[in-house]
Amino acid sequence: MVHPSHPGNVGAAARAIKTMGFHDLCLVAPRYADVLDLPEAHSLASGAGDVLASVAIVPTLAQALAPVTMAFALTARARMLGPPPCDIRQAAGLSCEHLNLHPEGQVAIVLGTERSGLTNDDIALCQRICHIPANPEYSSLNVAQALQLAAWELRYALALDASLPLLPVTHGHPQTGNEPASGEKIQALMAHWEQALVSVQFLDPHHPKKLMPRMRHMLARNALTNDEADMLRGLCTAMIKTAGKR
């Protein structure tokens, strides 16, 4: 982050990258020298205090990029001169390819000031210009929000490459109620269901027509779980009981 002026954005940026599995945040000549100690930074970090505590502060972008082997200058404006442009998804893919080819390499996303973004001199230090496709009539993103989007694209590309899970997983014992109901359980449900429909006079057992086959097809399409089958059995019991009281 080049010349960040709002402590809250620094805290929000720390939180943004931690949620995506990253932890290296570097500030170039922030407006407040004690930005990491300011209450607003800590408030918006919200659980990412460890990332905030390890933030590096350097005087120049050149110093920040010294160990970096591929840097993307994130900007909303088209530039007549400078490195070749790409969108943020392409940048994530290029980053993944670069790290596969150069395991010791480092990739950086460079963001400018909240008010004016990156200068041409800042961009000249990067290998690529990077854009977030946004509403052309209002493409200005808060710097921490832009960093969140960039971090998400990077995580997604890296997770796909490493075959990491993209959905939350539970590490406890499997819930048997969520397992598919067996054929035997479905047949018992259908018998109970038919009895319940007769009890509430929705089904005429002497003229059933095609009601039960249609009901069977409807339930089969939904691939009922054990819990769902039990729930419907409970509904059948309540229907029969209520009909009996009448």
From TrEMBL:
Its lineage reads: Bacteria, Pseudomonadati, Pseudomonadota, Betaproteobacteria, Burkholderiales
What's this protein's name? tRNA/rRNA methyltransferase
Organism this protein belongs to:
Paralcaligenes ureilyticus
GO CC annotations on file:
cytosol
The Gene Ontology biological process annotation of the record reads: tRNA nucleoside ribose methylation
Tell me the protein family, please: Belongs to the class IV-like SAM-binding methyltransferase superfamily. RNA methyltransferase TrmH family.
UniProt keywords (A-Z) are:
Methyltransferase, S-adenosyl-L-methionine, Transferase
Molecular function, one GO term: RNA binding
- Family annotation (CDD domains): SpoU-like_TrmJ
Q: Where is the tRNA/rRNA methyltransferase SpoU type domain?
A: 2-151
Q: Which PANTHER family match?
A: TRNA (CYTIDINE_URIDINE-2'-O-)-METHYLTRANSFERASE TRMJ, TRNA/RRNA METHYLTRANSFERASE
InterPro entries linked to this entry:
Alpha/beta_knot_MTases, RNA_MeTrfase_TrmJ/LasT, SpoU_MeTrfase, tRNA_m1G_MTases_N
